[in-house]
Amino acid sequence: MSNTEHVGVMDAITGRHSVRAFTEEPVSTEQLDALFQAARLAPSSLNSQPWRYKAVVDKDMLQLFATKDVSRTQTWLAQAGAIIVCCADTSGYVRDSQASAFYYRENDLITGDSMDGIEDYVERESSAAASAQFGAAAMNVGISISFMMLRAIELGLGTCWVGMFNEQKIKEMLNIDSGLRIVGLLAVGHPASDEVVEHNRKSLDEIILS
Ligand SMILES: Cc1cc2nc3c(=O)[nH]c(=O)nc-3n(C[C@H](O)[C@H](O)[C@H](O)COP(=O)(O)O)c2cc1C
C-alpha cells in the first residue's frame, strides 16, 4: 500500500466524489482488508453490526455486473478493480440487538427507564415487518459503507456506491445466502483521472431547520 497517505477527515470528505472510470491497476487484497477494517469500526444500533461483505475481483464476474440484467447496463462497472457487495443480515440484526440488550441488562451497564426503553425498542424491532427490519439493518450497513468510502481516499482509491442493481441476479451469481439482503454495491478502483470535482450540494440554508 505504498500510495497510502494520512488524510484529514475533512480532506477525505471533500476529496471524495463518485468515481466511474478506473485504471487497469488491480485493487490488492491488502487494500480490500484495509477497507473492511474501516467498515467494521462503524457504529451501529445496539452494536448489532449487521453488515456482511463480499468482494468480487474476478474480471469475468466484474463484466457480469456491467450487464443489462444486473445493473441496467452500467458498463463502467466492468472497469472497477473490485466490487464490494454490501449486505445486511436482518435476522442477525435482530438477534444481536437482543443479545446487546441482554448484556446491558445483565451487567447493569444501562439501568432504569433507559434500559426499559432499549428493551421496548428491541421488542418492536423483533416483531416488525421484514421490510422494516431490513430498513433498520440497511441504515447501519450504509454507515459502514461510508467509512469504507472515506478510508478509500486515504488509500488513493476511488469509489462509487451503486444502488441500481438486480438483487436476485447478484445473489444467484455469487451464491449469497438467501437470508441476506443486498444494500448496495461499492465499486472500487484506482481513479483514471485526478481531476477535482465540484460538489453539487444544497446550501446550509436549505438543510438547517430554523
Ligand atoms: C444509495 C446510493 C445509490 C447510488 N446509486 C448509484 C448508481 O446506481 N449508479 C451510479 O453511477 N451512481 C450511484 N450513486 C452515486 C450518486 O449518484 C452520487 O453519490 C451523487 O450524485 C453525488 O455525487 P458524488 O458522490 O460525486 O458527490 C448512488 C449513491 C448512493 C448514496
TrEMBL record:
Is Oxidoreductase tagged as a keyword?
Answer: yes
Family note: Belongs to the nitroreductase family.
Q: Which PANTHER family match?
A: NAD(P)H NITROREDUCTASE YDGI-RELATED, NADH DEHYDROGENASE_NAD(P)H NITROREDUCTASE XCC3605-RELATED
Q: Which organism is it from?
A: Pseudodesulfovibrio sediminis
Q: Which domain of life is it from?
A: Bacteria
| Keyword terms of this UniProt record | Oxidoreductase
Is the Oxidoreductase keyword given for this protein?
Answer: yes
SUPFAM superfamilies in alphabetical order? FMN-dependent nitroreductase-like (SSF55469)
Residues forming the Nitroreductase domain are 13-190
Protein's name in the database: Nitroreductase
